[in-house]
Amino acid sequence: MVLSASGALEWDSEKLKAAANSLAPRGRLRAAINFGNGVLAQRGPDGGPPRGVSVQLATELARRLDVPLDLVTFEAAGKVFAALSSDVWDIAFLANEPERAKEVDFTSPYVSIDATYLVAADSPYRAVADLDQPHVVVAVGKGAAYDLYLSRTLKHATLVRAPTSSGASDMFLESLASGSHSDLSAAAGVRQALDDAAKGRSDVRVLGEAFTSVEQAMATPRGRESGSAYLCAFIDEVKAAGFVRQALDATGQTAARVS
Asked: What is the pTM of this model?
């Protein structure tokens, strides 16, 4: 399915051309798509093209800039950001984190996603604060927004990093299945992914409280001033036009909040 926002930014042809050259200096817009966050992107059925709100936003942006679109896929947000120095993408869909903002320019957020914990059903943990204790060990996806957030904010608990966010949940569930769940106290992640991991299981539960709200934004490498300005105006317009809400609903992400 292809969605299209009805609005159009009031930029003259010269400014639009400058924005296109800034965002797609090679004549093609390379968009980093992160499969690690299922709210934003999903693999297409039967090996088809990727789907999701980030794919739809990239498609709409390329259409407005009148440039071809290349989707560059990654398994985790941390891997997207790590690839910045390799110059393999022009725009990305990342949570706005202070460490990342040193190297990329962010738009305003377009989606807010709660991050919380997956714990054993019989564990004593009922609130987020219960998990910031010296004996607590939390599995988390390396470089994910909630890894960066917890690294800044946890005072006592220990983080153990898996290559991806889904890998962190798997690590916790495997620990639980082996009977050694004292080794891992919880897995951190976005609520939708943790709810999926807990579905149909009686041995785990997802905390009702969130430890942070992850603000997802579009990003481009620093130094692309005209492109960054256009990207900021673009995301504000498509949010207001209802495009983001439609794109989320079209792929079943009805619980995600438009920022």
From this structure: 0.82
